[in-house]
Amino acid sequence: MGVEFLKYVREVSGEFLEFIKGKDIPVRIVGNLDADGITSTAILVKAFSRMGVKFSVSVIKQITDEFLDILSREPYEIVFFVDLGSGYLKSINEKLEKDVYVLDHHFPDVLEKNVGKIRQVNPHLFDIDGTKEISASGVTYFFAKSLDGDNIDLAYLALVGAIGDIQENMGFTSLNKLILNDAEENDDVEVKETFRFYGIQTKPMHKVLEYSTNPYIPGVTGNERGAINFIKDAGIKLMNDKQYRKVVHLNKREVEKLITAIESKKTSDSGEPIVGPVFFLRDEDDDSMKKELREFSTFLNSCGKMSNPSLGIGVCVGDHNTTKKAMGVLRDYRKEVIDALNWFYSKRKSENIIEKEGYVILLAEDNIRDTIIGTLASILSKSNLYKEGTILISTAYTLDGDIKSSFRVCGDSKIDLREIAKKIVGKDGYGGGHRLAAGAVIPQEKEKEFIDSVVKVLDSL
Ligand SMILES: [Mn+2]
After folding, report:
1. Which of 28-32, 379-383, 443-447 is modeled with the greatest confidence?
2. Quick one: what percent of the chain has pLDDT higher than 90?
3. Predicted TM-score (pTM) of this structure
4. DSSP string spanning 22-34?
5. Cα(136) to centroid(ligand 1), Å
6. Does the pLDDT at position 127 exceed 90?
7. Does 269 have pLDDT greater than 90?
8. How far is the centre of ligand 1, averaged over its atoms, from the C-alpha of 179 (Å)?
9. pLDDT for 247-256, tens place per residue?
10. Minimal CA–CA distance to 277: which of 293, 263, 258?
11. pLDDT tens for residues 385-441?
12. Rounded to whole angstroms, how far apart are CA atoms 169 and 132?
């Protein structure tokens, strides 16, 4: 599985080692602003630190011509793009007279290993599905492991990145599974069958239910009092020795009671079972947000969405001083996501939400932050609220006068949202992303044309 790909990764890392050997030159790292991009960046930061290679880091939302112009004027001879770059190979090649490495899993605009002075490492070049089998942090992990076998202890970061890109679905497959094997073999990660809720490790049980967005539990999600009553009504003790109990403290009978209570209350069949494999870091303290990998991933995503990626990198590379500050960022983020969900459910019958046969358009305007709108669409697409195959398009205003829009599809589908996004946007803006999670940016004054175009394109499918 992926033998040719891994061979190629070793070849490229070997070339880099050869190139950097004996030279005292700093490397420029540019990463993408989400959990996968932050873990990819952290893996390189850690690997380069171990080699004594100096570096400078930027984490950005997307590559722009302006950004490439700035990079081209910087003195760095080597640039690494992680979790971005493959969609901009032509522009990078035009603008940068440097040795460039692109470690990415987005669909490339040029399906070649070498584009000018760019070396591209991307699973799509090997017929490996970069939306499911490996993420950028996985690509970066294999690169780092080829540089030095000791970097096997970074495997867990690649799992956190893959989870962030929704590549974990009741477990891992393909190359991601190889990474899990490494993490288990190195005694870093253990897998347990338990509740797949967010926060089971660190949060009181009622908080876990209050924060539950998948499934969305009416009267419980976003409602602390409702969550407490729900637990009491289910016949489960809320406290023990004046301490709130956590989900991990429940006995088998209580676990069953809780499952039954949730099943009877949630809005629809959730896309995912409530119980399944959960991944834990062995050496982390029980109350650490790094303990459970999904929670860790959510934290890194929130760092990105709250425009604080360096905090995320700090936590990845093990700076304990940043943890307390990090907890605050995570709390604010969860609140924004829940506010967004509550906004959606309260507006379902209004003109902000257009529900048609086969697709739904959410117009959040300035009610939801543009960095949260994709999260909202992802949660809804997994909630089974709409029929399988329904396309969700959510939009929100950005601070710089654009509209950001996220494209998702409910359940499994053969559809290519990236192509649809491009077609809808046309020349009015930018459309791209992944097959099952795409996005677009258009100027606010083009909102009406955009909606008309959405209707026209989707009605014709
Ligand atoms: Mn990614």
Report:
1. 28-32
2. 70
3. 0.79
4. T----EEEEEESS
5. 5
6. yes
7. no
8. 16
9. 888 888 998 8
10. 293
11. 888 899 999 999 998 899 999 999 997 788 999 999 999 999 888 888 888 889 999
12. 9
Question: Separation of 130 CA from ligand 1 center, angstroms?
Answer: 9
Per the CB < 8 A criterion, the answer to whether 203 and 248 are in contact is no
Q: How crowded is the C-beta side of 355, counted as CA atoms within 13 Å? A: 9
Is 321 a residue whose pLDDT tops 80?
no
Q: How far is the CA of 259 from the centre of ligand 1 (A)?
A: 33
**How far apart are the CA of 163 and the centre of ligand 1, in A?**
10
Compute, in angstroms, the gap from residue 436 CA to the centroid of ligand 1. 12
What is the 135 CA–ligand 1 centroid distance (Å)?
5
- Show the tokens assigned to 399: 């601070």
Widest CA span of the chain, in angstroms? 68
C-alpha–C-alpha distance, residues 435 and 415, integer Å: 7
Expressed in angstroms and rounded, the spacing between residue 37 Cα and the centre of ligand 1 is 6
pLDDT digits (tens, 9 = 90+) for 162-189: 999 999 999 999 999 999 999 999 999 9
Distance of alpha carbon 56 from the chain centroid: 23
Give residue 297 CA to ligand 1 midpoint distance, Å. 12
Sign of CA dihedral 243, 244, 248, 252: positive
Residues 428 and 264: their CA atoms lie apart, in Å, by 46
**Which residue in this structure is represented by tokens 């990819």?**
40
By the 8 A CB rule, do 358 and 458 touch?
yes
| CA dist., res. 355 & res. 61, Å (int) | 30
Q: Ligand 1 centre from 335 Cα, in Å?
A: 24
Residue-level pLDDT at 268: 60
What span, in angstroms and rounded, lies between the C-alpha atoms of 236 and 231? 6
Residue 82 Cα to ligand 1 middle (Å): 9
Whether the ω angle into residue 273 lies within 30 degrees of 0, i.e. cis, is: no
Residue 83 Cα to ligand 1 middle (Å): 5
Q: Residue range 91-100: average pLDDT?
A: 97
What type of residue sits at position 42? A
> At 430, which amino acid appears?
Y
Residues 425 and 454 sit within 8 Å (Cβ to Cβ) = no
> If you ran DSSP here, which 8-state letter would residue 128 be given?
-
